[in-house]
Amino acid sequence: QVQLVESGGGLVQAGGSLRVSCAGSGSIFNAMGWYRQAPGKQRELVATITRGGSTNYADSVKGRFTISRDNARNMVYLQMNSLKPEDTAVYYCNAMTWSGTYWGQGTQVTVSA
Q1: Residue 32 in this model has a pLDDT that exceeds 90
Q2: Which single residue of 21, 55, 83, 99 has CA 20 to 30 Å from 45?
Q3: Cα(65)–Cα(58) distance, integer angstroms
């Protein structure tokens, strides 16, 4: 079956960096992405990447975050630099396959002021 498992979340000071990872299994993944949800807010798209490496970013993270993937290892990463307290959220990995769309359990990222 298809599974997505996130890791790498944690606590970091404002201005610091953090990288979250998502390990996929059970399928070939087409487009993949990272979403986040802060308390009291709806889930929002952070970044997407195709299997060929084309990327798209939300305006709020453009220039600070970088999404990448390793097709051989079935992994996708989100490198987060210059973090702000407003980036605090649960970050979710998303992947689309020919059989459906899947979500990971999420990993908490907390940025202190």
Answers
A1: yes
A2: 99
A3: 10
